[in-house]
Amino acid sequence: MKNYQVQEIKNLLTNAKTALVTVPQLSVDSAAAALALALVLKKSNITPKVYCLQKPDVNYSKLSGLDLITDIFEQNDLIVTLNYPLDKIDQVSYNDDGGHLNLVVKTKEGSPKVENDQIVIKNQSSAADINFMLGDESSLGANASMVNKGNWIFISPADINKSWAKAAIVDQDAPFCEIFTFLLPLLGFRLDNESAKNLLIGLRVATQSFSLNVSPETFEAGAICLRATQSSEAAPQNIQPTQFNSSIPTA
Fold first, then answer.
1. Which pTM does this prediction carry?
2. Is residue 175 within 8 Å of residue 206, measured between CB atoms?
3. What are 226-235's pLDDT values in tens digits?
């Protein structure tokens, strides 16, 4: 059994009500791991969302929780909407009134004034209480800056140091689904039928049915997932303390 350092992740999960799981590069392995995480979070009353720029195709159809994946990322913006005819607005500007921002909407001459009930204010904050990045965020392009806000956990098979991460799990050469098979029980989550099935599918694809890039722990992860898929109430695994490569980045 692998034993990752998870105390900081547990601390961040303590009061979390929402979670964002980001997949910079879509693969069956990364998607299966992300959805397994999202499913156990959901069953623990944490509302999850899985963000990925690429949309899953038919190759992902056997995974559970695909409805949790979105390719839309909303920035932390304040949006003021006017339920008012656009062709009657002359110009929109702003000014600084003693350190206070004023938005000025000038209507065209002869147009009715904008009433209070026509103004809708929305805070489109996408920042979740806890955020997971599965791999290098640089593939996200302009949205890679999302890591500059919020509590982020970096999880990757590649040995990369991320200064923005509050905690990191780096397990070189292990597929995401192997990492999450051991990580989820360590965090106190139950591997149920759906999450274990996802992880098992990801393991099989990542290792070409356990024929390439495998270790004893890879087979052990497969056995854990297989047992969980055959039990409706699979209990968290009893992980024995065997220290393995995990890291917490420093700024």
1. 0.75
2. yes
3. 999 986 544 4
